[in-house]
Design goal:
The chain has 14 helices and 6 strands. With about 290 residues, it is an alpha/beta fold.
Length: about 290
């Protein structure tokens, strides 16, 4: 469920000025421990591995790993069923009943042009279709969740029997994506279709910026992505950041080191996690 243009937002990348930090990790010192706040790209190619040694060192130095939500639960039958119930029309409506003929044609034309395998779009709600089109396209290009930063470390932490915890529930994430008005969903679909080539061409730039620790570029792209989707910006970024910062502050009171892995777009900029932590008096240094 880390998808779409908004899903792109969870992937991040942007252009900065002169000197780049080595990685997208910030070190925050608590009284008796260290929290490593690490930015994730949720979809990567196999060729993007191995990850920077700084990520590996932060992992080795941490007893506990904290992720946005439970990755195993995301694959569960119960959550898949819940997602389908929220993603599909169940009242007899069809996609063509809620969007304009022009948008419907542009959507089907794009799917055909890009050779995206996506059957059953007529019963998909706009928010889910907006996520599914870019996701399926990126998968065709070799980008996989299984090689994303969070999935990689989740599997590693499970194998190494490290402590694992989560910032929110999968259901909360689902509601953040599906809970916007139909008007906002249609607007998101319109932007996804009209800006599709721009979005997909952004992915390599995003990954390159993330590798360089280029937080300015990440922030600038995030702002651009959400400029016409303010309710999604609030629900997917700001609201979650405000929830998370309290939990990260609690992690800074533990006696062991913790590595927190979240989508890179959540970290920089105004109302980003670093900004919110600094407002609470913590110092964060980029590694």
């Amino acid at each position: 469920m880390k998808n779409i243009k908004i899903f792109l937002v969870f992937l991040f990348v942007f252009q900065s000025s002169f000197i780049y930090a080595k990685t997208f990790i910030w070190k925050i010192n608590g009284k008796n421990n260290t929290v490593y706040l690490a930015g994730s790209i949720h979809l990567l190619k196999k060729s993007d591995h191995p990850l920077s040694a700084t990520y590996s060192n932060a992992y080795k130095d941490s007893k506990e790993l904290v992720f946005e939500a439970d990755i195993d639960e995301m694959k569960s039958a119960s959550l898949q069923l819940k997602t389908l119930n929220m993603a599909m029309f169940t009242d007899g409506k069809k996609l063509r009943d809620v969007i304009s003929k022009d948008l419907y044609k542009k959507t089907t034309d794009l799917i055909r042009e890009k050779d995206i395998l996506l059957p059953g779009i007529d019963i998909m709600k706009p928010w889910f279709l907006s996520m599914s089109i870019p996701l399926m396209y990126f998968v065709k290009q070799g980008y996989l969740t299984e090689t994303g930063v969070d999935y990689h470390f989740y599997q590693k932490a499970s194998d190494d029997r490290k402590e694992i915890s989560f910032l929110e529930s999968c259901e909360f994430q689902l509601n953040a994506l599906a809970g916007n008005s139909i008007q906002e969903q249609i607007k998101m679909l319109e932007i996804t279709i009209s800006d599709f080539d721009k979005q997909v061409n952004t992915m390599p730039k995003m990954i390159n910026a993330w590798k360089k620790g280029d937080s300015n570029t990440i922030n600038n792209i995030t702002i651009e992505m959400f400029k016409d989707l303010k309710s999604y910006q609030e629900n997917l970024l700001y609201k979650r950041n405000r929830n998370w910062v309290t939990k990260i502050e609690a992690l800074l009171k533990k006696k062991h080191n913790v590595m927190v892995i979240v989508g890179a777009a959540h970290i920089p900029g105004k109302e980003g996690l670093i900004d919110l932590l600094q407002k609470r008096g913590y110092k964060a240094g980029q590694m």
